[in-house]
Known about the structure:
Helices cover 70% and strands 3% of the residues. It is mostly helical. The chain has one domain (36-339): Rhodopsin 7-helix transmembrane proteins (Rhopdopsin 7-helix transmembrane proteins), CATH 1.20.1070.10. Mean pLDDT is 75; it is low at 1-42, 257-262 and 363-370.
Amino acid sequence: MPANLTEGFPPSNGTVQTLDSPTAICFPTTFPEVEEEKWGSFYYSLKTEQLITLWVLFVVTIVGNAIVLFSTWRRKRKSRMTFFVTQLAVTDSFTGLVNILTDIIWRFTGDFLAPDLVCRVVRYLQVVLLYASTYVLVSLSIDRYHAIVYPMNFLQGEKQAKILTVAAWSLSFLFSIPTLIIFGKRKLSNGEVQCWALWPDDSYWTPYMTIVAFLVYFIPLAIISVIYAIVIRTIWMKSKDHDESVISNCSDGKLCTSYNRGLISKAKIKAIKYSMVIILAFICCWSPYFLFDMLDNFGLLPDTKERFYASVIIQNLPALNSAINPLIYCAFGSSVCFPCSERRARDSRMAGRERTERHEMQVLSKPEFI
């Protein structure tokens, strides 16, 4: 869910102005009382650059995720990892359409010109995508946990991926319901008509922001961290046991081979690496945003111009998440973006091997990643 600066700046009466952006739904940012021309000059000097940045992010997000969706759709043999890749691409695509594009439109119109119902629906969908972008990652982590820690149950429970995804989206729609009540079309103190919170004063932001921050970021991040700590430990233990088994076989004069059905396949390891990079990208894009706004709303940041400059950069970082995910998909599996070339390369490699080796590769490297 993108976070971007608003069209407004402190009004001429010197009152504190709150940012109004599609992602400031959860975390409003206030600025010190300064002269209007200073903030206005700074903001409008960067207005063109901000619009260009948003357009670039929008195009990259839509085109990149469209390629991923098309590539996964045309695959005849789909794995569970492919299913989660599709879910992430769908979430990122809607993020581009509902959040980034909406922000671009509001920067041109200034005021919110649509009816109150549209305001509530748009805000609701934005928060749904905020939750979904995190909960789908949690679902992916749980699925990878079962794939590594309980491989036999994992193979027998093919409906698990769909159940996890349905649960992720259901919780996202459920937790976003308060948005329909909290937000609406209203006139701000500076005369602008915006889609904004309807509560009496800004003191309500602190408890609301705290609850959303924990539901969206801190609790899911803790769950993901614990899951992958267990996964990494399991991989290390199984690899260690396998190495000891191979050494033992060789010392006894038996045929030395790395073939072992209990060993985690390379495809699963690749899936784990891919999942971790996706989650690391999410953390890098969202951590500055959440930490900055948490500190700001609790009054722990000084009222200086540096704080305003930092907010311009930090509140635009989350938009990068939906744009770089397709690049990660392609980096970890050429079959995502180039399924035909990957298939030809695989067939060429298989043609040069002995029949027994091909059989072993089919057993060990069952397509699990893409």
